[in-house]
Design a protein that fits this description.
Number of strands: 0
Number of helices: 7
Structural class: mainly alpha
Order of helices and strands: HHHHHHH
Strand content: under 5%
Shape: elongated
Distance between the termini: 44 Å
Largest sheet: none
Length: 195
């Protein structure tokens, strides 16, 4: 799934991030990420009927073995853009993580009476915005890798509930990391602080 591209030099990258078109994409992505994060608790409530599966519970860490057994991979690690973590790397990981969560939710959606349709549409829209930023950030055109299909091992209704639950928990954490990264790219925050 690795891609090779020569990124823009630092001075050009700074100009790119400060550009209005890029900033519009950052702000749209920020809004979509917030929308996704706000919808997760209601989505969880409408889909998860096992009382012990709570969205913000310390018990979720105990389900790591179950995640492994079902086949839920971890999300990519996101960091704020820095000398050691480039804009391209950040955007690639955002895109990969969102594609992963979309694939995971798509695999359980039919067994949850398609209650995930709205959330899946928002994730798709966010992927499109992130990929537009990625395309602008790259000096050379590189074909985006297609997401690896996810094959969950779901033997019964409880496994479906756990898979949906763990995916929403992981998506919530990944969404918060995405929001943090997007905030670091949002130049309007600095403008407001200076006024």
């Amino acid at each position: 799934m690795a891609t090779f591209a020569r990124g823009a030099p630092p001075a050009e990258r700074s100009t790119l991030v400060e550009g209005q078109q890029f900033q519009d994409l950052v702000q749209r992505s920020h809004s979509l990420t917030q929308k996704i994060l706000v919808s997760i608790p209601d989505t969880h409530k409408s889909c998860i009927h096992v009382e012990t599966l709570q969205l913000n519970s310390s018990e979720n860490a105990k389900l790591a073995y179950m995640a492994s057994t079902i086949g839920i991979p971890s999300a990519p690690v996101l960091r704020v853009v820095s000398e050691n973590f480039t804009l391209e790397t950040s955007l690639i990981r955002m895109s990969e993580g969102l594609q992963l969560h979309r694939a995971l939710l798509s695999s359980v959606s039919p067994r949850l009476e398609n209650k995930l349709t709205g959330l899946l549409a928002d994730i798709k829209d966010l992927i499109i915005q992130i990929n537009k930023m990625l395309k602008m950030a790259r000096a050379e055109a590189v074909v985006q890798p297609s997401p690896t299909p996810v094959a969950l091992r779901l033997s019964g209704e409880y496994d479906v509930q756990v898979a949906a639950h763990l995916t929403l928990v992981q998506l919530q954490a990944f969404g918060q990391d995405t929001l943090r990264c997007l905030r670091s790219l949002d130049q309007s925050n600095g403008d407001e602080a200076e006024s």
